[in-house]
Write a structure and sequence with these properties.
2 domains; single chain
Length: 208
């Protein structure tokens, strides 16, 4: 049973570490994203950026073929939801479009624009005149500098229970680092010990 609990700790830690860390102080999206700004004037510009900077360039096959996929999310002030292929979406004020590849993310805010989605490209059906667009390309790890609703994009590839475990592990490690040891190596050790202590009574009950 002890080995099983240790394995659980390792899985949780690996999920956390592979998803990146949200330990930086967060700013407004526009301030934080400024270094990653890209210029787009039409859907050809957008698709070129997505093709060359977001979509995984190496071809994977079999069970790993999902690495080559492109996922779309609509980010609102209160939620993050998936966008289905062939779905038409109109961006409202304070809503963001996210196109997510294996390592990088394309973010765009273009209020009142209507967008259609296909497997590896998007089409702008209506791009209102006089509406300034905000478009950015950044790595998933850099999403940690943004508000929480953007930060959740980092876990969008995980099954929801695993995403919960990754967020829990990340928050726990952050708390231990800031309030207990101020060293990431020891933070991992303390976190693993805490998990073993918490699960120890469960192990005793299951062996009776």
């Amino acid at each position: 049973m002890l080995h099983a609990r240790i394995n659980i700790c390792i899985i949780v830690l690996l999920s956390c570490l592979s998803s990146g860390h949200a330990w930086a102080q967060q700013q407004s999206p526009e301030e934080s994203l400024q270094p990653y700004h890209v210029t787009v004037q039409n859907d050809e510009d957008i698709n070129s950026i997505i093709k060359h900077q977001v979509i995984e360039s190496h071809n994977f096959f079999g069970l790993s073929s999902y690495y080559n996929s492109l996922r779309y999310l609509l980010i609102t002030p209160t939620s993050v939801r998936s966008i289905d292929l062939e779905q038409e979406v109109e961006l409202a004020e304070n809503e963001w479009l996210a196109a997510i590849g294996r390592f990088n993310v394309f973010l765009m805010q273009t209020p009142q624009s209507r967008i259609m989605f296909s497997e590896q490209s998007i089409s702008i059906i209506n791009w209102p005149d006089g509406i300034s667009n905000k478009a950015y390309v950044l790595s998933k790890n850099n999403l940690r500098i943004l508000p929480q609703r953007f930060n959740e994009i980092r876990y969008s590839h995980l099954w929801s229970p695993f995403a919960f475990l990754a967020r829990f592990a990340e928050a726990s490690l952050d708390f231990i680092y800031k309030n207990v040891v101020s060293h990431w190596g020891w933070a991992v050790v303390f976190f693993a010990i805490a998990i073993i202590i918490v699960l120890f009574p469960v192990g005793i009950m299951t062996t009776r």
